[in-house]
Amino acid sequence: MKVIKLLKIGLLFLAALQLGAMISPSDNLTEKIKANLRSHQVYYSPEKVYLHHDKPYYLAGDTFWFKAYVLDAAKLEASTKSGVLYVDLIDHNQQLVDRLTLPIADGEAFGDFYLGDDLQEGKYTLVSYTNWMKNFGEDIFFQKDFYVLGKQFKKPVTATEPVQSPIDLQFFPEGGDLVSGIPYEVAFKALNSDGFGASVEGAIYDEQGKMVVAFKDHFAGMGSFVFTPKAATKYVAKLEKNNGETEEFTLPEIKEQGWVLHMDEVNDPENILVTVQSTIPESKSAMLFGIAREKLIYTEEIDPSGTNTIFIPKKNFPIGVARFTLTDLEGNAMAERLVFVNHPNSNQVTLETDQQEYQPREEVNLAIRYQGEVELSHLSVSVTADQLAYTPEYQENISTYLLLSSDINGHIESLGYYFESEDKSRQEALRHLMMTQGWRRFGWDGLLSGNFPLMSFSNELDLNIRGKLERANGSPVEQGEATLFLKDKYTTFMLTETDDKGEFSFGGFYFKGNIPVVIQGVDSRGRRDNVEVKILENDYIPKITENRILFNGKTWTDLPKDFSPNPKQATEGIETGIWGLELGEVLLQEVVVEGRADVYEPFRLHTSADAVIYTNQLPVATSGNILEVLQGRVAGLQVMQTGMNEFRAVIRGMGTPLYLLDGVPITENSLSMINQFDINRIEILKGPGTTGIYGGRGSGGVIAFFSEMGTMEEIDPEGGKHIIVHQAAGFNRIRQFYSPKYETTEYYELPDRRSTVYWNPLVLLSPNSKREISFFTGDVTGRHRVQVEGITKDGQPISEVYYFEVN
């Protein structure tokens, strides 16, 4: 029997070995990549933010209107990770000019910056991000330059003689390396010192000075040429300058052997033509992987012998950037190429006005039709006067950013050019762009090893108040306790422990503007002596990166002298109901933070007091009787407990004092019904000099309570550093765009030189429906531009432009 059992075990072992042998290394590699992609998408996937704003130029004193779309980076659907969006305005010195904190609802947020009259003329950068996006670096933030004209704007200085800017010329062999003996396509990119494409024409020469091939840029300083490099040969590119001088640039070194990857995504509308070849003797098989939207869509094992020609159907890939990587069987990358896959959008938005030409101050009726079965986000609509808005040709839009520029490195000039039509010339230009720009997001090595970013920043679904408990010597109070008190419609108490750094955080808030909160700290044994509460302010300033959308200032000219923002526009509509937002907002899903009234000064007869104590200096009355907190706080005042939650006060042994609430006498028994957090301050009057105004009723002294009717007073430093009043910053308030109605006579005599005629971030259309909006033109004549942007719920960007005339 033992022999039979051993024989069975041996057979099972052999079967397991055979099964393991059937699993090839390529299968293991493929499954590993799939698993790591799934992990990245579920646990590490970043977000994308895109901002649609009304125009590229602004005047100091104008308003910058914008709408933000916050999306999952892979699916381009509304992100569920974040509920808080930051939008920063940064000047050219990397200084923060202004910051907005906005709530995100269904992947959307909107707001505005008021550009003050004293804002210096120059270039500014708009940066938008969530706290979660910080885990992946500023490179993935939305960053865009724009220009602000000062009140005394200057006309750009024009050089009397043309000066040729230094050229930066770079070469990019397709796939990554030049391999000897094989015809190779090399892309190039030429940039001026301002970061924009430079038109170039030149030739490639070998070591003997023999011209090998000529080249010329196709669009925006980019192009390509084909030549067969030779081993151990150095090649240079020569450019002729305007002054007759020649500038040389060295091409990358030539490898004697290697793998070659060539891709043609232009000539076949249905397929991507891939050619793979190896010049390495007796080389092993290779693997070709195609990844898009963080999914492994294509995989193929490549035979090392001969030339492999592969047709990959474009329909298998979603619209956008796809990354193809050629690796060995261990996963080491040998070549890589980016390809843009385009598909017609089945969801279309069309625009039409009731007329093509209008008079100044005439009503425009704009019809927006949506043909599509998928639900839309709210559309954002801007209408600007070309004469003043100076919208550049081929500017970026939601489609170009989400599908292209947000996924690759570096600035892309004239983004809209690549999407305007499907002609072959533009497809070739887009192909050159894919060959010269690098992948912006996670690299191949990180994907293969599963070495994902260290997640140091949590996703914020709501507002947080963060702080730290420290001792006098600066050391943290570990496992201490922080208590937050908030007086709103209800009285809110929140408790939390500090971590090993002494830090604490209160979350779950949703309010606008600033509200005062009281925060008290104690150590692990409940002691408040030698404990100091400090608030951790948000002092983060994002770094401006090269990936931002650059501002091309070469085209603007002096503006008309009468150009100015509408004076009513800057102040109209604070917190109006048109956007569905009110001042009162939900806190912790239940508590409503009410708007604060002006500071209220209650009635009182006396003009001075012997002692004044603000309640934010005092500990919490555990009994619920406010007299308890006065124990030991004022010289000559004795507070004694007479029963459960009952206390009695005596001033200098003179008997029962007179109790006042906002100047009205109350009984001692009613003190237990006063909420401590409804009281702003307590005034104690001890002797005849201060109590005389109250006559015989004040012979035992006076204890006057004054309710909290406005903002809290500043805390008295003598109260101790263990308790503070903090003005917590909430979401910024939203303003409504002012659009005059000239059917009435109000403001009719004022000049209307608005460059932004209409702005609306919340236009809602159902599938296969039509919506009409109306607005009036101003006094600016000429062509007017309508820009409509949005995204479908399944991640298809919508961008449409329409023009009409004002004569």
TrEMBL record:
Q: Name one GO molecular function term.
A: siderophore uptake transmembrane transporter activity
Q: Which range is the signal sequence, renumbered to this chain?
A: 1-21
Q: Which UniProt key words apply to this protein?
A: Cell outer membrane, Membrane, Receptor, Signal, Transmembrane, Transmembrane beta strand, Transport
* Location of the TonB-dependent receptor plug domain: 611-702
GO terms, biological process: siderophore transmembrane transport
Q: Where in the cell is it found?
A: Cell outer membrane
State where it is primarily located.
Answer: membrane
Gene3D superfamilies in the record, alphabetically?
Answer: 2.60.40.1930, TonB-dependent receptor, plug domain (2.170.130.10)
Topology of the protein relative to the lipid bilayer: Multi-pass membrane protein
Record's family? Belongs to the TonB-dependent receptor family.
Would you tell me the protein name for this molecule?
Outer membrane receptor proteins, mostly Fe transport
Q: What lineage is on file? A: Bacteria, Pseudomonadati, Bacteroidota, Cytophagia, Cytophagales
